[in-house]
Amino acid sequence: MTSIGTGYDLSASTYSPDGRIFQVEYANKAVENSGTAIGLKVKDGVVIAVEKLVHSKLLVPGANRRIQTVDRHIGLATAGLPADGRTIANRARDETANYRDFYRSPPPLQAIVERVGQFVQVYTLYSSVRPFGVSTILGAVDKNGPALYVIEPSGVFFGYHGAAVGKGRQLAKTELEKLKLSELTAREAVIEAARIIYLVHEDAKEKEFELEMSWIGPETNGIHLPVPKDLFDEAESKAKEALTSGLE
Amino acid sequence: MDHFPTNWGRPRNDAVDLYNTFPIHQRPSNVPKDAFSAGIQHTQQPIVTGTSVLAIKFKDGVMMAADNLASYGSLARFRNIQRLCPVGEHTVLGAGGDMGDFQYIQAILDELIIDEFAAGDGHTLGPKEVHNYLSELMYARRSKMNPLWNALLVGGFKDGERFLAFVDLLGTTYSASTLATGYGAHIAQPLLRSAVEGREDTLTEDEARKILEESMRVLFYRDARSLDQYQIATITAKGVDISESRKLETAWSFAEGIRGYGAQTQ
C-alpha cells in the first residue's frame, strides 16, 4: 500500500484520489489475521465450521464462541475481531425479531442479510466510526431451502455455495471447489468441513486451535444447532486421519 | 335480576349488559367527551373470546384441555381456533378470554424463546419461568389500565417436577393440582377436585384423559359458549404433546321430553 502516510487512510469518510477507502481495506486486514471460517451450502442443509485459534492455555475450552445463533433457523460465523462479531450477531437478532414482529413469519435469510449488510455499510461513511473488522458467514434453511451468504467489512454481500473467510480462505476455497456441494448431504458436509479446517490449519502451522461446527438440516429439523458429539468426533478423527495420510 | 347488592338502587348502566350478550356496541352519545380520557383508549372488554381451559396434575406430569371455539359475543364465530400452545420444550400455555390478546401473547413468548435459544448457553425456560414472566407481563399491563384480557393456565414438566399455575388479566396468580378458567372454574373445577385431589401421584395418563374428557363433556352441555371439538395437551418428562382436535360424544335425545324446548305437539 503505497498510499500509507498520504493522509487518505485516516478516515472512512475520505476517498483516496484513486477512489479507494483505506479504512475499509484495513478492516479486511483484520479479517485476514483471524482463524478461518467456512460455510457449505449443500443439497439439504448448511454446515458452518470455524478454526478458533486459542491464544492462551488458561482459557476455558469452548469459550469465545465464533459461531452464533441468530434465529431458530439462522446461524452465523465471523472472522475478524470477536467483539465486532458479537455486535453483528446482536444486530442480526434484532433484525430477525423486527421481521417476525412485522410479518409474523420466520425471515428468509436474504432479508436479514440485506439489513445487516446495510448496517455494516453505514460504518464506512463517517469519520466518527470505524468499519467492522469482520467478515460474516450467514447460513440458514428457510422457505426457499438452504441459503449461504458472506457480508464483508465494506457492506457488500454475496450468496455462495461454499464460502471461506479468514487466514486460510484461499486454500479452503480451492478445497471447497473440489466438492460437489449440491450433491452432498449435511451429514457428509460436516465430515468435509472438519477436514478442510484441519487441512487449512496444518498448512499455516499455527498455534493451538479448537474446531467449532454447527449445522442446519433435516437431522436438526431445520434448526441451527451445534453438530452433535458423536458426529463431531467422527468428523474430527477422520480429518486427522486425512491429514496424516496426506502427509505421507 | 341484578345479583350484585351494591348495584341496587343505582341508575341503570347501559354500557354493561347483565344478560350476557356482550360485546355490545358503543352507544351514540351527546355528552362531551372528557378531554383527558378521549385521547387514549384502552381495552374495555374482550371481543373474540375463548371459554374454559381445564388442567390437572397426574402421575407423570400435567394435562390440559380446551375447546376449539372463539366466540364473538354469543356467536360461535371461529370453530377451529387453537387455545393450547407449546412454549419452548417443557411448557404448554392455555388461554381463555380475548383471542387477539392471546395471539399477541404467543408472539411475545415466541420472541422470548428465540432469544433464549440464540443465547445458546445450554439453559432453557421451564414452566416456572414462563409463568413468572407472564405474571409480570399481565400485572404490568393492568397497572397501565390496559390489560391483556385473558385467564391463562401454564402447565409443564421440567427437571423431574410438575408445574401448574394460573395467571389472569389482573396479574393474579395461584397454583393447585386442578385448575380451570372461565365457566369451567364454576362447573368443572368441583368435578376435577373430587377426581384428582389426593390422587395426583397415582393417576395414570389414561385416567387423567378420561377425567378431562368427562369435564369437557359436562361443560359442553352446560356452557353456551363452548364447542364439542377440543384438544388435550400432555406434558411429561418426554416433552409436550398437543393432540389433534377431537370430538365429544354427546346425547341430546332427552331434549325432546322437555316442554318449552323445540316444537310442541300438544
Automatic annotation (TrEMBL), chain A:
CDD domains on file: proteasome_alpha_type_3 (cd03751)
Question: Does Manganese show up as a keyword for this record?
Answer: no
What are the Proteasome alpha-type subunits domain coordinates in residue numbering? 8-30
Q: Name one GO cellular component term.
A: nucleus
What Pfam families does this protein map onto?
Proteasome, Proteasome_A_N
The places in or outside the cell where this protein is found are: Cytoplasm; Nucleus
Q: What does this protein do?
A: The proteasome is a multicatalytic proteinase complex which is characterized by its ability to cleave peptides with Arg, Phe, Tyr, Leu, and Glu adjacent to the leaving group at neutral or slightly basic pH. The proteasome has an ATP-dependent proteolytic activity.
The similarity comment for this entry is: Belongs to the peptidase T1A family.
What's the name of the protein?
Proteasome subunit alpha type
What is the organism lineage in this UniProt record?
Eukaryota, Fungi, Dikarya, Basidiomycota, Agaricomycotina
TrEMBL record, chain B:
Indicate whether Glycoprotein appears among the record's keywords.
Answer: no
Which UniProt key words apply to this protein?
Cytoplasm, Nucleus, Proteasome
- Major location, coarse class? cytoplasm
Q: Is Nucleus found in the keyword set?
A: yes
Q: GO biological process annotations for this chain's record? A: proteolysis involved in protein catabolic process
Protein name, UniProt field:
Proteasome subunit beta
Its GO CC terms are:
cytoplasm; nucleus; proteasome core complex, beta-subunit complex
Q: Please give one Pfam family short name.
A: Proteasome
InterPro entries assigned: Ntn_hydrolases_N (IPR029055), Proteasome_beta4 (IPR016295), Proteasome_bsu_CS (IPR016050), Proteasome_sua/b (IPR001353), Proteasome_suB-type (IPR023333)
Q: Which family does it belong to?
A: Belongs to the peptidase T1B family.
Query: What lineage is this protein's organism placed in?
Result: Eukaryota, Fungi, Dikarya, Basidiomycota, Agaricomycotina
The cross-references to PROSITE patterns, in alphabetical order and at most eight, read: PROTEASOME_BETA_1 (PS00854), PROTEASOME_BETA_2 (PS51476)
Role this protein plays = Non-catalytic component of the proteasome.
Q: Which SUPFAM superfamilies match?
A: N-terminal nucleophile aminohydrolases (Ntn hydrolases) (SSF56235)
- Where does the protein end up? Cytoplasm; Nucleus
